[in-house]
Structures are given as structure tokens and as C-alpha cells.
Specification:
alpha+beta, Cytochrome-c3 Hydrogenase, chain B, 4-stranded mixed sheet, 15 strands, 42% helix, disordered N terminus, binds magnesium ion, binds nickel (II) ion
């Protein structure tokens, strides 16, 4: 007989989605599915609009990571113009992209995941939040707030607006970097670097408490994809596609992003509006791959900055070959924060970046353009086609959270099987299922091209599909 089982809602995640955990008659987990339930079609909505409006429109896809869309969109438009943008403009876009990564990773690690990591997966759910962290480790909480503010501040200083900065435009950026802003950034940089290093050291000293989670939180072989520099280094703004396997053997390398459709297929499942991209040559669903911090550090040969490269050595020691446990997205995220800060500092110290020539002007010279960059959560593609009048005829967006859809589903199932056994589901066990998703840090407002933030629901169903319980915190 079906039983009512209390389930706390999935919280501390951005967007609107649900998990359905299906139990067999004996109470063991049969399947666990991650659905995305909201949909708003930006791809259709932009048809007929002038292409030069795209960066400002696309930045509105997401309140969490507008900068990633802004950058990918501006890059796609650069291709429509077929111009080489001024070098300074490129450097400033890179800087803003890094600032976005730092603030987004800080949000993920400190605000969303540090309650689990500091207080424990089984701690009192009423206190397992940022306020609980403030009580138990005030410095960790303060560090998280300061670091996130710093990233947001840099975006605001560069773009003039914290949310949806319409600053990157086709052909470059709207305004140059001033000496005053540069000095502000450099003034606060030592504190930010200290925070990043201190947090990385803390995480390295404490993740050992989570051996069981490391083993079961999406720990499986897969492909890993991302952009790399010509020498195989970590890359966020530009670069070519690389895919490696679980042993870090090269599957594809230095592939031009506009050729992405040759390698990436997008499957559609009836249970979710979020498409399931896969590596075409292996087919669906065998072609599962992961993107984002874990993938980027698995594919890259080096980071290219001193502190991050030193930290990368520790990360490599986790496993020969690629690091497979999704739990280590956290570790990778902290290394990327360090890298991002080092890169921003490097840019600030380059006097060429005060150059005031930051935009190239042209009419459209091409009818098709693909812009790709690494968003905080993974590779982002904006692909546009226009007519002779510069009006959009077609758009395709492949967003970071989508790439991870197959792997997230598999990870949730692995964790649910390991931790959930009917008839009783302790809260801490359910929290682990949520925590798996938090490792991937999906941006659901982004992945459904939907606006706003909504919570995730969890549903427990019996073998016949009857809902045993369903909850959602407002
Ligand atoms: Mg799409
Ligand atoms: Ni987003």
C-alpha cells in the first residue's frame, strides 16, 4: 500500500524544477528524474528583431548569469559584423566574464552549499542555511558575502549596472576602463585573493568528512567538455572545444565552436522542457558528458596563473585520469574563483587596458554567427541567423545547465539509490539528493530561458505512479 512519506522541499537552487523519486514495491528506489517545468521561448521570441538588440535582450534570459548571455550574444553579433573587435574591448569583456564567474561561484559555494559542508548533511534543517553558517563560522559567512560583492561590484563598475549590464555590444563594449575603477579593483584584490585561498584550504581540509557522498554523488565515468586555449589551458572567453574521457584521453580537441552541431545532438524527453544534449558520435544517451568547473579542470592541461596552477596539482591528485565525483565540483569551483581573481588582477595591471578605443563599427557582413564562451556552469552557445536587413530569422541557444542534464539525472538516481530506502526517509537523506543537484549548481531560470527564480519541488511516487507526497516551500 502507498504510504505518505514526509519530504522537505528542495531549496537553495536557482529556478523552477522538480525531482520525482519512484519507489518499487519493496520500498527501494526505482528511478529518480529531474524535470524542468517552466518554459519561455527566447529563441522564438527574438525572431524578426534587429540583431544588434540581441545582447541586451539575451542578457534578460537570466537574472543569475546575465553576463554570460551578454558575452556569448555579443560574440555571435561580432561574427555577423565580421569585424575584429579592439583588443582592449576583448580584454574588458574577459574581465567582466571573470567577475561574473567569481560572484556566481561564490553564491553557489558560500550561500547555497556551505551550510551542508560546514554544518553537515544531517544537521537541523532549520539552521542549515546562511544564518546557521554565520553562527557556526562567522568568518566563512562574511568571506562569502564579501567575495560575491566584489564580483558584483566589478560588473557594476565596468557595466554601470549590476543586473543586465548592457555594456557588451556588437563590435566591442560601450565604455573603456578608467584608471579610477582599475585602482578600486586593485585595492580590494588582496582581500579577495586571501578569501579565495583561505576557503580553498578550508575545503581541502574538510571534504574528507564526506567520503560517502564523494562516492555516491554522481560518481561515474563520462565525457567532459569545455573550451581551451591553443596550448590546452583553461579558457572562459574564447578558445576551442575539447572533450576528454574518464581517463583524460582526448576525444576531440581544438574544434571550432561554430562546428558544435557536428558533435552535439539535443534529445528531447517528455518529462522535461530542458533538452538533453549528448556527444553525437556515441549516440543518446551513451554520449553523456559534463561541463562546468569539474569538466573544465579535467580537460585543461593547466590554468595559467600561479595560485590556480598550484591548486590544480592538489585537484589532480584526487584521481589518476579525470576526477569523476560530482562532489568535487565544489573543489573545482574554488580553484576557478582563485583563477578568476588572478586573471582580473592581471588585466588591471596591463596599462593597455585603459585604451579608449573599445568598439568597432560595421554593418552586418555575415548572415550567421556563433558565439561561445564558458559561463560559470559550463559552455554556452548563442547561434544566430539574420536576413539581409539584419533581422533575426533563427536562434539556437545551448545553455550550460542543459549540457549537464543527462549527468544530473544519472547523479540524482545514483544518490537516491544509495541514500533513500523506504518506508522512512530521514530529512538528511533527502537533503543529500538536493545536495547532488547543488554540486552542479544548475541555473534553471537560464536553462528554461525563463524569468525569475522559483523553487524546486520533490515528489515521491509509488510503483504505480501515485504521488505519495509532494512539497514546495514558498
Ligand atoms: Mg536551444
Ligand atoms: Ni542563468
Amino acid at each position: 500500500m502507498p504510504r505518505d512519506i514526509a519530504i522537505d522541499p528542495v531549496t537553495r537552487i536557482e529556478g523552477h524544477a522538480a525531482i520525482t523519486i519512484r519507489l518499487r514495491d519493496d520500498g527501494e528506489v526505482d528511478t529518480a528524474l529531474f524535470h524542468v517545468t517552466q518554459f519561455r521561448g527566447f529563441e522564438k521570441f527574438v525572431e524578426g528583431r534587429p540583431f544588434h538588440e540581441m545582447p541586451s535582450i539575451m542578457a534578460r534570459i537570466c537574472g543569475i548569469c546575465p553576463v554570460a548571455h551578454l558575452i556569448a550574444s555579443a560574440k555571435a553579433c561580432d561574427q555577423l559584423l565580421a569585424v575584429r573587435i579592439p583588443e582592449t574591448a576583448e580584454h574588458l569583456r574577459r574581465m567582466m566574464n571573470m567577475a561574473q564567474m567569481v560572484q556566481s561561484h561564490a553564491l553557489s559555494f558560500f550561500h547555497l552549499s556551505s551550510p551542508d559542508l560546514l554544518l553537515g548533511m544531517d544537521s537541523d534543517p532549520a539552521a542549515r542555511n546562511l544564518f546557521g553558517v554565520v553562527k557556526a563560522n562567522p568568518q566563512l559567512a562574511r568571506d562569502g558575502i564579501r567575495l560575491r560583492q566584489f564580483g558584483q561590484q566589478i560588473i557594476e563598475w565596468l557595466g554601470g549596472k549590476r543586473i543586465h549590464p548592457v555594456w557588451a555590444v556588437p563590435g566591442g563594449v560601450m565604455s573603456p576602463l578608467t584608471a579610477e575603477v582599475r585602482d578600486h579593483i586593485l585595492e580590494r584584490m588582496p582581500e579577495a585573493l586571501d578569501i579565495a585561498q583561505r576557503t580553498l584550504d578550508w575545503h581541502r581540509d574538510t571534504y574528507g568528512r564526506f567520503a560517502e557522498e564523494i562516492e555516491s554523488f554522481g560518481n561515474f565515468p563520462s565525457l567532459f567538455m569545455g573550451l581551451v586555449t591553443p596550448s590546452g589551458g583553461l579558457q572562459f572567453y574564447d578558445g576551442k572545444l575539447r572533450i576528454v574521457d574518464q581517463d583524460r584521453r582526448m576525444v576531440i580537441d581544438q574544434v571550432e565552436p561554430p562546428d558544435y552541431m557536428d558533435y552535439i545532438g539535443e534529445a528531447v524527453e517528455p518529462f522535461s522542457y530542458l533538452k538533453s544534449p549528448y556527444y553525437k558520435p556515441l549516440g543518446y544517451p551513451q554520449g553523456m558528458y559534463r561541463v562546468g568547473p569539474l569538466a573544465r579542470l579535467n580537460i585543461a592541461d593547466h590554468c595559467g596563473t600561479p595560485r590556480a596552477d598550484e591548486a590544480l596539482e592538489g585537484f589532480r591528485a584526487l584521481r589518476q585520469g579525470a576526477v569523476l565525483s560530482s562532489f568535487h565540483y565544489h573543489y573545482a569551483r574554488l580553484i576557478e574563483i582563485l583563477y578568476g581573481l588572478e586573471k582580473i588582477e592581471e588585466r588591471c595591471n596591463d596599462p593597455d587596458n585603459l585604451n579608449e578605443h573599445v568598439r568597432a563599427f560595421a554593418e552586418p557582413n555575415c548572415y550567421e554567427g556563433v558565439g561561445a564562451c564558458e559561463a560559470p556552469r559550463g559552455t554556452l552557445f548563442h547561434h544566430y541567423r539574420i536576413d539581409r536587413n539584419g533581422l533575426m530569422t533563427w536562434a539556437n541557444l545551448v545553455i550550460a545547465t542543459g549540457h549537464n542534464n543527462l549527468a544530473m539525472n544519472r547523479a540524482i538516481e545514483q544518490a537516491a539509490r544509495h541514500f533513500i530506502r523506504g518506508p522512512e526517509i530521514p530529512e538528511g537523506m533527502l537533503n543529500r539528493v538536493e545536495a547532488v543537484i547543488r554540486c552542479y549548481d544548475p541555473c534553471l531560470s537560464c536553462s528554461t530561458h525563463a524569468l525569475g527564480r522559483m523553487p524546486l519541488r520533490v515528489r515521491l511516487v509509488d510503483a504505480a505512479g501515485k504521488t505519495l507526497d509532494e512539497r514546495e516551500r514558498s
